[in-house]
């Protein structure tokens, strides 16, 4: 008898990667949120794509829309190893007014609707809809198997979160069998889980459907003039009302070390982005990027190893409790609790403390930078001090309510022009 194929081999992943990500402020002025750098060398979108790849899915589509050039270039460079002769695909699907001359992607569901013919060409039984802007590790085969065994119309990935934190999410009320009985968008009083009155189930924006079923519903939704053509606003509430929607617990499919918590982050604000990157410098971080069994695939530049030079009092190239990527040169700089991306060059007598420094940044002499995010390609001028006087920092840079300072080239240009 022929060997039974894993469900991921009969499935495709459709990654929604077109959102503006405006809460990341100037970090998304030139790039969409899924293209923002994360973890030293990856981009945010790499986590959803790597989960699909590691789960065994070899048919992937990425829908792009706003400020997509950086994302498309990254996908072309870092995800070009799929081979059509092996029945593998990664298709980039920019919003291209395929339906008419006025409509871009009108919502998350419409992004799939406008590409029905392309999904049809993949010849798959199941489709998993993924958000391209979250940090997590998950085996989608587990969720697909649960979907098939339950016979649900849709299976929705859900986080278990404290009830008081669930007001920012779409929340599922479920029965003891994880059948969804209601779906509430950002409720003031979130429904609790059956097993714990202090916990709630929040939607991860991950949905599994059989493709024929979803196609039928997408075509019906496209004809509804009152629809916003969005999964969370329109399709999911309608399917929950039919009584055949099921919640999948992220705890059951999260890929993690033994004893580690289920890790999922929406790094949608500057504060959350800074914190998630800095957390990676912890002695044992909750997110394991060193796991060879579930690697995070990405575009990797050919760079030399990091180099640390000078060993004098006050001028020692050193990094403590930090991550330093390839191509970095730490020249007489003290680096503490910081994450440095590729090709960061620092100079003598500078100090970086709790800094997230994106690629190709130069830090000149005597700069002192504390609790900062520095955008790609920025040249920090000699003697710049940030993180010691919030009022002064706020004159030139973006300072968050919790005191994280975002520095971009444009901000420094305005500062220089005013002097």
From TrEMBL:
Keywords: ATP-binding, Carbohydrate metabolism, Glycogen biosynthesis, Glycogen metabolism, Nucleotide-binding, Nucleotidyltransferase, Transferase. GO terms for molecular function: ATP binding; glucose-1-phosphate adenylyltransferase activity. GO terms for biological process: glycogen biosynthetic process. InterPro entries: ADP-Glc_PPase, ADP_Glu_pyroP_CS, GlgC_bac, GlmU/GlgC-like_hexapep, NTP_transferase_dom, Nucleotide-diphossugar_trans, Trimer_LpxA-like_sf. CDD domains: ADP_Glucose_PP, LbH_G1P_AT_C. It comes from Rubellimicrobium mesophilum DSM 19309. Signal peptide: none annotated. Alpha-D-glucose 1-phosphate binds at residues 105, 170, 185-186, 203. SUPFAM superfamilies: Nucleotide-diphospho-sugar transferases, Trimeric LpxA-like enzymes. This is Glucose-1-phosphate adenylyltransferase. The record marks 65, 104 as: Could play a key role in the communication between the regulatory and the substrate sites. Pathway: Glycan biosynthesis; glycogen biosynthesis. It catalyses: alpha-D-glucose 1-phosphate + ATP + H(+) = ADP-alpha-D-glucose + diphosphate. Residues 13-281 form the Nucleotidyl transferase domain. Belongs to the bacterial/plant glucose-1-phosphate adenylyltransferase family. Its EC number is 2.7.7.27. Residues 304-407 form the Glucose-1-phosphate adenylyltransferase/Bifunctional protein GlmU-like C-terminal hexapeptide domain. Homotetramer. Involved in the biosynthesis of ADP-glucose, a building block required for the elongation reactions to produce glycogen. Catalyzes the reaction between ATP and alpha-D-glucose 1-phosphate (G1P) to produce pyrophosphate and ADP-Glc.
């Amino acid at each position: 008898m022929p060997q039974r194929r894993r469900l991921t081999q009969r499935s495709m992943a459709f990654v929604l990667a077109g959102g503006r990500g405006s809460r990341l402020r100037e970090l998304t002025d030139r790039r969409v949120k899924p293209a923002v750098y994360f973890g030293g060398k990856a981009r945010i979108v790499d986590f959803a794509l790597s989960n699909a790849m590691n789960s065994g899915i070899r048919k992937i589509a990425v829908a792009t829309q706003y400020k997509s050039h950086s994302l498309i270039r990254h996908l072309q460079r870092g995800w070009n190893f799929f081979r059509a002769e092996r029945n593998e695909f990664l298709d980039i699907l920019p919003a291209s007014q395929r339906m008419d001359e006025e409509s871009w992607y009108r919502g998350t569901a419409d992004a799939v609707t406008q590409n029905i013919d392309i999904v049809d060409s993949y010849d798959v039984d199941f489709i998993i809809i993924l958000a391209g802007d979250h940090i997590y590790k998950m085996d989608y085969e587990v969720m697909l198997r649960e979907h098939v065994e339950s016979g649900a119309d849709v299976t929705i990935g859900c986080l278990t979160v404290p009830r008081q934190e669930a007001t920012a999410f779409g929340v599922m009320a479920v029965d003891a069998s994880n059948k969804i009985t209601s779906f509430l968008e950002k409720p003031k009083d979130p429904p609790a889980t059956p097993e714990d009155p202090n916990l709630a189930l929040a939607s991860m924006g991950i949905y599994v459907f059989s493709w024929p079923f979803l196609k039928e519903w997408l075509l019906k939704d496209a004809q509804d003039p009152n629809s916003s053509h969005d999964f969370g606003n329109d399709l999911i509430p309608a399917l929950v009302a039919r009584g055949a929607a099921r919640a999948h617990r992220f705890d059951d499919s999260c890929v993690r070390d033994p004893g580690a918590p289920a890790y999922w982050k929406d790094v949608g604000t500057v504060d959350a982005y800074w914190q998630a990157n800095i957390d990676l410098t912890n002695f044992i971080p909750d997110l394991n990027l060193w796991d060879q069994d579930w690697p995070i695939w990405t575009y990797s530049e050919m760079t030399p190893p990091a180099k640390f030079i000078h060993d004098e009092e006050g001028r020692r190239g050193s990094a403590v409790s930090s991550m330093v990527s390839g191509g970095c040169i730490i020249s007489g700089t003290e680096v503490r609790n910081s994450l440095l991306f590729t090709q960061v060059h620092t100079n003598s007598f500078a100090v970086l403390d709790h800094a997230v420094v994106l690629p190709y940044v130069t830090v000149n002499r005597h700069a002192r930078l504390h609790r900062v995010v520095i955008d790609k390609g920025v040249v920090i001028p000699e003697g710049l001090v940030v993180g010691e006087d919030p009022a002064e920092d706020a004159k030139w840079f973006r300072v968050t309510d919790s005191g994280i300072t975002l520095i971009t080239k444009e901000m420094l240009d305005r500062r220089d022009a005013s002097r």
